[in-house]
Amino acid sequence: MLQACLQIFPVCIGAIGAAAPCDFRPKNRYSEKIKKCASVPLSIDFVATPDVFAELGKIKRPGQWLVPFALETVENAKNHALEKLCHKNGDLIILNGPQAMLEDQIQVEILDRTGTTLAIFCGPKKEVAVQILHVIQNLELNDQPTWS
What we know:
Helix content is 28%, strand content 24%. The chain is an alpha/beta fold. Strand 5 (69-71), helix 3 (77-87) and strand 6 (92-96) form a beta-alpha-beta unit. It is globular, with a radius of gyration of 18 Å.
């Protein structure tokens, strides 16, 4: 996914991080089934995957915008989302919770760089997506400076 995004992003005016690539992957892959052995416990080591939007944020040029999502489960979700927004050099961030993965009805909060809530939408995913696009369109994000 990273390579495809790096290839296409330079000709885009912006990107919305609606896909959810995993944060971690298993360190080792096996070509065959791992046999069960009662005397040996099984453990899986994980390694971090590339952060697609952080990489796009590094090559973002003036006139481009990035709107990542932040799926958060912690008490101070808004602060975590704002940290992600800064780390990814984004313009807005869409904050949601884990229920977004399992339900047809979702709730999202759109935050700007200052932490201001621009909108809260809830409803069917398709309707919320259209509302998110309207917010992005109305803000003319392509005129914003990058993070310093």
